[in-house]
Design brief:
The complex is a heterodimer of chains A (115) and B (114).
Chain A (H helix, E strand, L loop, with lengths): L3 E4 L2 E4 L5 E7 L5 E8 L3 E10 L2 E4 L6 E7 L2 E6 L8 E8 L10 E2 L3 E5 L1
Parallel strand pairs in A: 2-11
Antiparallel strand pairs in A: 1-3, 3-8, 4-5, 4-9, 5-6, 7-8, 9-10, 9-11
Chain B lengths: L3 E4 L2 E5 L4 E7 L7 E6 L6 E6 L5 E4 L2 E6 L4 E6 L8 E7 L10 E2 L3 E6 L1
Classes of the chains: A mainly beta (115), B mainly beta (114).
Chain lengths: 115, 114
């Protein structure tokens, strides 16, 4: 998985609790992404980062925040988890060098269940 | 607003047959069209990609056909094998267009029956 790890891999939590997912890369890629994957919706971008402390919102950012204090780590936080945030979360990285294109490398995913 | 529409949602093909998955896009500025393959419990991985300066790209049993005027592209899997059973995502982006990168289709769940 291109030097990308996600932790935890599985988590069950209760509604209203805060949750933080971690993505760690060893590729020194500048760009990092958080997606959620749900049946019938494919991959939807939550937040992305284009450098240390530089982040922006994606398509489905409500209820999520991110932080990137180091090149290698990108954290996704659910401030107060809701059942609608039950999903599989994928981190991805990209060099965006323009050659051969915007290939993104994906981590193994975190399965989050909010009860 | 879905900028990349993918069909079908699911597909069952007999071993040895041809699997065809179609995608249509709206943004004419897109100039990079990858296909990602995802096995259960794994993250998506790049399978094959095409730029709009060619109408077809082939890698082994996998071929992308691209129709710029129709704003459509498709993935063909020749001699489909049970090991090809996976979820396939098409995507599109503007190379160098920004950090938000790829826009994905909703995916096709492909089953190859032995």
């Amino acid at each position: 998985d291109a030097g990308i790890t996600q932790s935890p891999r599985h988590k069950v939590t209760e509604t209203g609790t805060p949750v933080t997912l971690r993505c760690h890369q060893t590729e020194n890629h500048r760009y990092m992404y958080w997606y959620r994957q749900d049946p019938g919706h494919g991959l939807r971008l939550i937040h992305y980062s284009y450098g240390v402390k530089d982040t922006d919102k994606g398509e489905v950012s409500d209820g999520y925040s991110v932080s990137r204090s180091k090149t290698e780590d990108f954290l996704l936080t659910l401030e107060s988890a809701t059942s609608s945030q039950t999903s599989v979360y994928f981190c991805a990285i990209s060099d965006l060098s323009g050659t051969p294109g915007d290939e993104q490398f994906f981590g193994p995913g975190t399965r989050l269940t909010v009860l | 607003q879905q900028q990349v529409k993918q069909s079908p949602q699911s597909l069952i093909v007999q071993k040895g047959g041809i699997s065809i998955i179609n995608c249509a896009y709206e943004n004419t500025a897109f100039d990079y069209f990858p296909w990602y393959q995802q096995f259960p419990g794994k993250g998506p991985a790049l399978l094959i990609a095409i730029r709009p300066d060619v109408s077809e790209k082939k890698e082994g049993r996998f071929t992308i056909s691209f129709n710029k005027s129709a704003k459509q592209f498709s993935l063909h899997i020749m001699d489909s094998q049970p090991g090809d059973s996976a979820t396939y995502f098409c995507a599109a982006s503007i190379v160098g267009g920004g950090a938000d990168g790829l826009t994905f289709g909703k995916g096709t769940h492909l089953i190859i029956q032995p």
